[in-house]
Every structure is written in structure tokens, then in C-alpha cells.
Amino acid sequence: MTGAGRGIGRAIARRLTADGHRVIAVDLDEAAAKEVAAEVGGRAVGCDVTDPDALRALAASVASLDVLVNNAGIFPPAKLSTLTAEQFRQVMDVNVIAPLLLTQLFVPHLAASGGSVVNIASMSAKVPTPGTGAYSPSKAALVSLTKLCAVEFAHTGVRFNAVAPGGVRTEGAAQVSADPEREARFNDLVPLGRRALPEDIADVVSFFASPDARYVTGQVLYVDGGLTEATVSFLHAAQNVRKP
Question: What is the fold of 7-177+195-229?
Fold first, then answer.
């Protein structure tokens, strides 16, 4: 799995290991990958997922594979009015093109094992999020790619599904979560009343990777505590804000 070095990726590595998988922890930060691999008894690979040669070398080093988890992603905040083409391409390279290339490389392994691919998308794929620059478009593209792969690779027997988290308490969100008042306001708007933990996401990845999901493909599961369906809650909150 890619992006295994921290946050959601680390939680997925732990859960899949508990399920009996031997995890190959892939991350741009090789030291972080090694730390996770040491914890779960897996193998660490430092890899830039935007480098096709590095991806080919990774695939050549893997004899068999049951589950491919495409979790690596970047989130450089930017307004569309100032976003450069290079910045847009960089996000697409990591968030969309890398999962495509890895899928192409590993489909033969997964077909042989009757395995599956789980792509980590985002609620931003469904809810356009201002200020995220290319992130929302990239995750929407990843959702579309997941569905297309499910159809085009159906003859291989490989299943493709996506998990789309909402707000998750990770290292990347630490600065936001550190403000108690802001965090309380956020949690008030989440129907289930709290920000997700990485383990909440990992458990759903475990389902998609398991035999229990043997007849599930081309699906996207929004693991967001109901946040993407909470339009009325947001409207009520906006109405209750008093102007100074």
C-alpha cells in the first residue's frame, strides 16, 4: 500500500496486518515506511509514486499480491484563481496517475490471487471544497477511475472500490483539531458527532479487501459520519450566526 508512513495509511497497515496480510509499506518518506513496517512486521519501500521507473521496480520486486491500497495523496491548498498548471499536474500525478499506473502494473498479480484494489478518495470528490485547488478535482477523478477500472478489468476478476473519508484526525489535521472551539463547532455539524479516527477508515478498507466484499465492485463508500449529507445542519448553523 502507498502512503503507508502515517495517519490513515499507518492505520490501514495495522488493520490489514491484523487481518492476516503481510503489508508492503510504501511511502515517499522511507524512514516513515520503515517505522510502520517494523511495527507490523512488513516490508518497507521508499518510493516516489510519480516516478514510473520506481513503480516498475516496485512491481518487479513483488511476487504476489492480494490487495492494492492506493492511499498516497497530496493536499496543497490553493485558490483556483492562483493555481498554476504545474501545481495542478503535480496533484494529479500523485492522486490519480499513480493509482492508474500501479493498477496497470499489479492487475496481473491481483488477477492471479483473486484480489482487489482499494483507492482512498475523499468527501471532496462529492462536495467541491473551495481553497483545495486541484485536490477536489483529483479525488473526483480517482472515483471515476475506480468505477471505470471495475468495468474494464472485470474480466480479470479483480474488484475495485474506493473509500472516501470526511474529516479525519491525522497529523495533517492536527493544527485544525488543536483549536478546541473550532473542533467543537465542526463536530456539532457532523451527524455522528465527531471527527473520524484513522481506524474508522481502515476498518472499511478491511471490508473491501475481505471475502465479505466478494460481490462488491465499482463502489464508493463515504466514511464521513454523514457529513456530506448534512446540508440542512450547515444551513441552520449559518442562520444562527449573528452578524457583529
Answer: Rossmann fold (3.40.50)
